[in-house]
C-alpha cells in the first residue's frame, strides 16, 4: 500500500501553486504559522518545515518580527 505524501509537501506545493497562480503576489504577507496550520489541519511544525523550504529556495522571504512574505520575482 503506497504511503500518502507527507503533509509538509502538500503545504509547500499548495503555497507554490498559489504563488504561481497569482493568488499570492510578490510582497504579500503569508498568514501566521498558526493560521496556516489551522487552514491545512496540520501542526505548526509541519507548516514551518514547508515555509522554511520555500524560504531556502528563495520563493518566500522571512523577516524577523514581521512575518513571511512572497519574494519578488527575479
Automatic annotation (TrEMBL):
Domain HTH gntR-type: 5-73
Superkingdom of origin: Bacteria
GO MF terms held by the record: DNA binding; DNA-binding transcription factor activity
Keywords: DNA-binding, Transcription, Transcription regulation
Alphabetical GO biological process terms: negative regulation of DNA-templated transcription
Annotated InterPro entries: Bact_HTH_transcr_reg, Tscrpt_reg_HTH_GntR, WH-like_DNA-bd_sf, WH_DNA-bd_sf
Protein name listed in UniProt: GntR family transcriptional regulator
Organism classification: Bacteria, Bacillati, Actinomycetota, Actinomycetes, Micromonosporales
